[in-house]
Amino acid sequence: MKLQVETTPKAAPMVINCVAYQANGERMPDITVEQISDVLQLPDTFVWVGLHEPNEAMLDKFQEEFGLHDLAIEDAHHAHQRPKIEVYGDSLFIVLHTAQFVGGKIEFGETHIFLGPRYLLTVRHGASLTYAVARTRCEKEPELMAIGPSYALYSVMDFIVDNFFPIVSQFQSELAELETDIFEPNYKRVTIQRLYKLKRELVNLRLAVSPLQDMLNQLVRFHPTVIREDVRPYFRDVFDHAVRVKEASDTMSEMLSAAMSVNLAMVAVGQGEVVKRLASWAGLLGIPTLMASWYGMNFAHMPELAGRYSYFTFVGITVVVVGITYILLKKVKWL
After folding, report:
1. Are 67 and 147 in contact (CB under 8 A)?
2. By CB neighbour count within 10 A (0-12 exposed, 13-18 middle, 19+ buried), where does 82 fall?
3. Other beta carbons less than 10 A from residue 322's beta carbon
4. Which of 8, 22, 141, 210 shows its CA 20 to 30 Å from the CA of 158?
5. Phi, psi of 54 (to 5 degrees)
6. Beta bridge partners of 100
7. How far apart are the first and last CA of the chain?
């Protein structure tokens, strides 16, 4: 008899990376949270930490190591924050919204960033890709990493904005498919449902992207204590990417509104065509009904009532009137 042992899945690590960099931008060996304060005592070094959905105890440790503001830590405890930049002394607290495909659907998350003269701390919540790709790209250019945490911040923000482009492309492809469905002769309820769903997701995307322009403008123009002058051109490049995403989302939003209006108009036109056909056939059936009702009345004296060919004459006149009406209705395209 085999004994079954139940195993619970191991919890995902909260500290994804905790790395220090020398003054020349070269990476130092990985460090623990407790070693951060010791590393910061070395001249011209900085620390880049990546967290994923940390608990309060973990954030409290980093607050102690970096001297983070209580209000910023309080915001970082709760994932539902609006995109913003807040200044606390010589440090910045930045909230960004992120997006990615999860199971064929678009999920939105948040990244909270603490930036100081000697550190960069990123805290990911919800749907967000790891920033290991951005870190690897930075480490391949140590002369740029020598700029400090502000260049690492640029790399993270550039990675976030660039991840919006595949989503925009997916939206554009789906919108092209829906435009084809709109003009099909048969009305499909699922088409308007897909239009509404796409419209809703696009609104969420615009809410994530729109604040980026103002935030990047601030990073380009202000905060000299933490944003080095030689890294500002890189933030302008990210600003240009954000503008492109914003313009693409605005254009698609207008096209979606037009598509929904066209879809409803096509439905109304289709219903009008059905009503016209029903009215036409009702009119055609009403002609013999009316004429037969005249001669169905029980009056003793009616024209041609006693004639030998009255029945055939009546039927012929009825057919002619119905035929002329049918031709007229076909001419005006009601049938």
Report:
1. no
2. exposed
3. 17
4. 22
5. -75, 155
6. 107
7. 79
CA 298 from centroid of its chain's CA atoms? 74
Average pLDDT value over all residues in the chain: 80
Q: Which amino acid, one-letter code, is at 33?
A: V
Q: What's the token pair of residue 192? A: 């308007």
pLDDT at position 266, please?
73
For residue 20, what are the contacts with CB-CB under 8 A and spacing of at least 6?
27, 28, 31, 36, 39, 45, 46, 47, 48
Cα–Cα distance measured from residue 190 to residue 197, given in angstroms and rounded to the nearest whole number: 10
The whole-model pTM stands at: 0.73
CB 108 within 8 A of CB 82: no
Sign of the Cα pseudo-torsion (166, 171, 175, 181, in order) = positive
* SS3 per-residue string spanning the chain: CCCCCCCCCCCCCCEEEEEEECCCCCECCCCCHHHHHHHHCCCCCEEEEEEECCCHHHHHHHHHHHCCCHHHHHHHHCCCCCCEEEEECCEEEEEEEEEEEECCEEEEEEEEEEEECCEEEEEEEECCCCCHHHHHHHHCCHHHHCCCHHHHHHHHHHHHHHCHHHHHHHHHHHHHHHHHHHCCCCCCHHHHHHHHHHHHHHHHHHHHHHHHHHHHHHHHHCCCCCCCHHHHHHHHHHHHHHHHHHHHHHHHHHHHHHHHHHHHHHHHHHHHHHHHHHHHHHHHHHHHHHHHHHHCCCCCCCCCCCCCCHHHHHHHHHHHHHHHHHHHHHHCCCC
Gap between the Cα atoms of 213 and 246, Å rounded: 9
User: Which amino acid is present at 158?
Assistant: D
User: What confidence tens digit (pLDDT) does each residue in 239-287 have?
Assistant: 898 888 888 888 888 877 777 777 777 777 777 778 888 888 888 888 8
Handedness of CA 37, 42, 43, 47 (dihedral sign): negative
* 162-to-71, 186, 240 alpha-carbon distances in Å: 30, 39, 11
